[in-house]
Design goal:
Number of helices: 7
Helix content: 55-70%
Strand content: under 5%
Number of strands: 0
Shape: elongated
Low-confidence stretches: none
Order of helices and strands: HHHHHHH
Structural class: mainly alpha
Radius of gyration: 25 Å
Distance between the termini: 22 Å
Length: 123
Amino acid sequence: MSKAQDKKWAEARRKALRDLATTTDEEDAEIHAAALHDPDNPPLTDEMWARMRPAVEGMPEFVANWRKWRGQQKAPVKKLVSLRIDPDIIDHFRATGPGWQRRINDTLRKAARLRRPAKTAAR
């Protein structure tokens, strides 16, 4: 997360904790009553809480795939471009599995006789 995002989350957390600390019992009862009448978002019961398990237990494949996603680079080292490449070239590289775009980059680098930058040499 960027420093700006960290600041925004810290501010949101501070405001939420302040609001929670200043919420009266009457306000809490009103909120709870409104939630009971909302069919799309009812409050969780003690039974529901007791049945909850970590996502990794219920959907391990989903969690594993989610954890692989790198997210936005802090300092992008590559440029996003749009290229028109023959379909058979794309099919060839995609058939080699995950990492096919990196392999296209490696092939272009080799064809251009360029050395790999020091920062990306280790994978």
